[in-house]
Design a protein that fits this description.
Layout lengths: L1 E2 L1 H11 L10 H22 E2 L11 H20 L2 H31 L7 H10 L8 E2 L4 E2 L2 H15 L8 H14 L17 H9 L14 H5 L3 H17 L10 E6 L11 E6 L2 H20 L16 H17 L23
Antiparallel strand pairs: 1-2, 3-4, 5-6
Length: 361
């Protein structure tokens, strides 16, 4: 497919008139999101042409002439059945094969000579050559083998549903103890910090996020690519900004932006016939990711302003990594040595990132 991005932008400017949304409830947000996505999809269809890939390969003129001579000689042989003509036909066919092999080798050599590690072409080619096509084999389902693609998809879906279902681990005494501990541990809220009035998102902030988008990333279920977002005009940026601000105003996130395309990736060294050995990779909508950036900023602002996070938390915090936490553990153990004390530690290893245990908010 070939997309004319100038045509894409002109379509949005001429056919999509920006008017402030009249959003008064959650359903209005859903409708605004649908219209926004629909306009982008229609503009992309209008500006995109399907280019048919040519199946013919380049043939050197010398080889073309030899092919013509071979065909003529072949007809003479079929007509006259002269042994000398047959000998000439065999000679021409061998020569054609030799020249074709040399031509392919020359093309491959020229292609490799143009590769450059500085502009990334060398590493891109190496990555393509190392990549192995990964086909999911027959999967062991609960009751039968999954052989067809729909059956495989259903088997993996059932496996993921089980993995992400909450386990029944209710124990009233333990829950009361945990709730009491967390309530006593939580630091007091900083009343001097104003967190009720969230500043509105500005179009300039949205543009800043859009500029950072990687056009090589895969799109979500809506088919809206990062390159499409990077080519929207200012009027569409205003519309997107208004949708994001209303998401904050109504504390509501659109359902379309919570739906992802799940791609199963086999874990290294695992049995490919077992559904549980596939790691789910979720491809969310780009518009959803843009909105999540602002939600994360506001959430961090609230957590830092109210001093909610404990100093011992290093995960998912800016400027802090596991290396810092390991350094803290080493210093703790070393200080224990200096005082003649022994240090005991408990390390938990989780088989999966997400467990079946839930928590009450």
């Amino acid at each position: 497919m070939n997309t004319d991005w100038g045509k894409f932008q002109n379509y949005l400017r001429n056919h999509v008139e920006y008017k402030p949304y009249r959003i008064s409830n959650e359903m209005d947000i859903e409708e605004a999101v649908r219209n926004f996505e629909k306009n982008l999809q229609e503009a992309h269809r209008f500006a995109t042409k399907i280019v048919k890939k040519s199946t013919s390969t380049y043939i050197h003129p010398n080889i073309k002439n030899l092919i013509k001579t071979r065909n003529k000689t072949k007809k003479d042989w079929q007509t006259l059945r002269n042994p000398s003509i047959k000998t000439e036909l065999n000679r021409i066919e061998k020569l054609i094969k030799k020249l074709e092999k040399e031509s392919r080798q020359k093309d491959k050599t020229e292609e490799l000579e143009t590769l450059n590690p500085e502009n990334g072409t060398l590493w891109t080619k190496a990555k393509i050559m190392r990549r192995k096509a990964q086909k999911i084999p027959a999967l062991k389902g609960e009751f039968k083998l999954a052989l067809s693609d729909p059956d495989k998809a259903e088997t993996i879906a059932v496996s993921l549903e089980k993995q992400f279902s909450l386990n029944n681990l209710s124990h009233s005494e333990t829950e009361e103890e945990v709730n009491e501990s967390t309530n006593n541990f939580s630091p007091p809220i900083n009343n001097n910090y104003q967190n009720d009035n969230i500043n509105s998102i500005q179009p300039s902030e949205v543009i800043k996020i859009i500029k950072k988008l990687n056009i090589k990333k895969a799109c979500g279920r809506d088919g809206i690519t990062n390159k499409m977002i990077k080519n929207i005009p200012c009027t569409m940026v205003f519309a997107l900004t208004e949708i994001i601000n209303n998401i904050f105003n109504f504390n509501y996130f659109p359902n379309a932006w919570k739906t992802a395309v799940v791609v199963p990736i086999l874990k290294p060294g695992k049995d490919p016939t077992i559904p549980e050995n596939y790691r789910p990779i979720s491809l969310l909508s780009t518009l959803s990711k843009i909105t999540e950036n602002f939600i994360l900023d506001k959430l961090n602002e609230h957590l830092i302003g109210n001093k909610i996070l404990c100093p011992e938390q290093f995960g998912f915090r800016k400027s802090l990594t596991t290396n810092h936490q390991l350094l803290r553990v080493v210093e703790y153990i070393t200080s224990g040595f200096d005082r003649g004390e022994c240090t005991a530690a408990v390390f938990l290893i989780f088989k999966k990132r997400s467990t079946g245990s839930g928590s009450k908010a």
